[in-house]
Amino acid sequence: MSRIQKGDVKLADRSPAEFLKLLVLLSIPFWIAGYVVDRYLASASPINLPFSALMAINPLIVAFYLARRESGRDASVRLLRSVFDWRKISPTVWLAPILLTMPLVSLGSYGLMQAAGAALPEPDFPWRLMPIFVPVFLLFAFAEEVGWQGYLMAPLQARWGALVGGVIVGLAWAVWHLIPYAQAGHGAGWIFWQCVTTVLSRVLIAWVCSNTGGSLLAAVLIHATINLCAFTFPNLGSHYDPYYASLALAVPVALVVIFWEPASLARRRRFRR
User: Which of 70, 5, 30, 56 is nearest to 226 (CA)?
Assistant: First the structure.
């Protein structure tokens, strides 16, 4: 966890409830607008992304506001700048887990679906759309992670540890998405398993951040790969199934829980005699 600079409030003094309350209040207009706008724009998008997905900007707004209110302008600026601190990520150690974990999970879920006899098309990766997808999903991930990981996760980790804190943030993250999932036309079963996948994904993000000195850039990158994989699997997300995604994702999450300390999600130390 990153060191608290002079002038910042203590992590335990931050109010997760206040963050979530403001987040919901700011998201309500997006949820309402989604029911109206999606009727006219659904066919205009190559992927099944509802209008309410634009609420992704709200965690950034809430985190910036609360950090400024609690500790002044400098704290909010530092929060934003921390996203661009690439020095915490060791290219030889953590870049591969950050960028490759979710693509491997997607391949694993594809294999599970094939083994289960699911009718799948031949993969057709949308290379032509990558110049649009990559910056858009990076922007969405940036806006969300400043709030979820940069502001909300810190006090929860300070109180209950990285694993429990990650699960709590993951549950809040999943509930926040319930209405957009429904607006995208998904059924209850799909939404349930997507919520499971969301919580598992948050544990991975917490693990990466805990082992990169609290790097928000790492959180942004792995968050962006989550969205990229979901909306390109295997053909613009048309056959993405969160049930199989959750089964595949459970493997790396189980390894993290087994081999890293739950309190910090840092590597377990070997005991010396």
Answer: 56
What single letter denotes the amino acid at residue 32?
A: I
The candidate with the shortest Cα–Cα distance to 220, out of 161, 271, 146, is 146
Q: What angle do CA 129, 242, 184 make, to 5 degrees?
A: 65
Q: Which residues neighbour 9 within 8 Å (Cβ) at sequence distance 6 or greater?
A: 70, 71, 75
How large a percentage of the chain has pLDDT more than 70?
91
- C-alpha 183: how far from its chain's center? 20
Question: CB–CB of 197/245 below 8 Å?
Answer: yes
Identity of the amino acid at 127: W
pLDDT digits (tens, 9 = 90+) for 134-148: 999 999 999 999 999
31 pLDDT band (50/70/90 cuts)?
very high
Range of lowest pLDDT (7-21, 73-87, 167-181)? 7-21
Report helix angle 162-176 to 153-160, nearest 10. Answer: 140
- Give the ranges where 152-267 is alpha helix by DSSP (H): 153-160, 162-176, 178-183, 188-210, 216-230, 242-259
**Which two structure tokens, joined as six digits, stand for 236?**
């613009």
- Between CA 189 and CA 200 the distance in angstroms is 17
